[in-house]
Specification:
The chain is α+β, with helices and mostly antiparallel strands. The chain has ten helices and 22 strands. It has three domains: 67 residues, no CATH class; 241 residues, Rossmann fold (3-Layer(aba) Sandwich); 52 residues, no CATH class. Helix 3 packs across helix 4. The radius of gyration is 41 Å and the shape is extended. This is Zinc finger CCHC domain-containing protein 4. InterPro entries: DNA_methylase_N6_adenine_CS, Mlase_EEF1AKMT1/ZCCHC4, ZCCHC4, Znf_CCHC, Znf_CTCHY.
Amino acid sequence: MECYWSDPSKHPQCPHGPTLLFGSYETGKLQKFYVCAACRERKMCKFYLKEDEQLTKRQATKWDQEKKRYVSHYEMTHPTEILKPLENSRQEAQYFFTKKATEDIVNILVKLGAKQVLCIGTPKIHEHILEKHEDNISSLLLDFDGRFHNFFGPLNYCWYNLLNNHFFNESAMYVFKDFVMQNKGKDIYLVCDPPFGSRVEPISWTIKKISDLHRKWNNIEDESDCLKVIFIFPYFMESIMKQKSNPPDVEGGLRDLRMTDYKVSYDNHPLFITDSKPTKLPSPIRMFTNVPLNLVQLPKSDGYWYCKKCKKWVSEENKHCKKCQDCTSKNGLTYKHCDICKRCVKPYWKHCKTCTRCVVTKHLCGNKPNVIGKCFKCNEPGHTEKECDIDEETHINAAKTKKIRKRKASDEKETVNNIKKRKVRASGEPDEETGKISVVKNTKKSLRKLEKKGEKQKITPELKVKKPRMLKKPEALKIQKKAKLRNQSNGIVNIKKKMKKQPA
């Protein structure tokens, strides 16, 4: 058996790549043939072709099908092409961006001047950056799907849970910190595609936490150098993000994000697809960001245009309303203005005099939805913000009164705690701090409040004024001795008096 020195790239290929040229003597004649370069036994790879022969069409089709059974380099660097998306909607349902959406989002990042991109739940963005922009942009993928360990190295992927900001591997936290501190934290963008069924509160907390760490680790004071966020979410969750993602007095997180008109499409979801059919609504998924909207340039090829009045890029169907002074469309259709409601509404809505608002044409009048949550305006249950009768002034006053009540409650707690800690003197003796005589009535009131709360307080005997003060043993002995001396002296005086009164 002989192996010939030759260029394998000119040889026919089996599923394991180009074959090698071998030769053996059979019946005194040299017979050359191509066989697999990886497998030493024909049982492992059955490819065999004589040097002077060509593959038939049937044989070529067969070996092409065999090649498809093996993972290619492209598939190894693009695991989303071969991994089956997880379908458990209660835990980790996966929906991958279309190729067009992936390219558009990455192009937006390139135009914004991104140097580092933190991909949270966006493996498609991560793959595309590594393939097309690896020289200019560094990328780190944080994802809940542990299968990506088989395709990306520890410096490119961290197994991560967005909802509690948890790294499953302790060393991954150091990888994350080093990535965030690259280039002193400048030109870094966070792109997040969360599960849409999750609560916005923990997501907002995590994004705020990452932003705060980015600011702290890089000693950032200029707002222009803060972490830039691109967040993928449905347009109809905009009000929830603004009202419920953060507590009222906490800024940052999802509350600071503004919605763009860009429609995000997915490969494996029937409703999240932007189709050219006029009868079908486009994808309801939008891109939210804290980047100024005039800088987020959307693709002109898809009909997006720049509105000079609003100073932002909007979709083709989104027309500027002179009365609202804004481009108001959100669901992919051109909205119309209602003069009675004084706002723009969906085109298939109509103003109902009975309901006194714009609703769907076919509806039951007076049929109000059952509101379970609280109003975003007054924080009271049973109605929505639009139905709230409280104006802004009363809302502000109500907030102030709540603050005053909280202050009063805290003051009362402080006074009760002070009564507990203070050593109360006898009612007749002045207090060292105030110089005033303690009043029994105040102590009685404080005792009643404590009894109502059901707290069992240990009260010193001095606080109970009616009962005699208990004395210590040495003090009691001194008093007894003094009393005996008084009695003795009193007895002597009485005897003298009696003697004086008796007749001589």
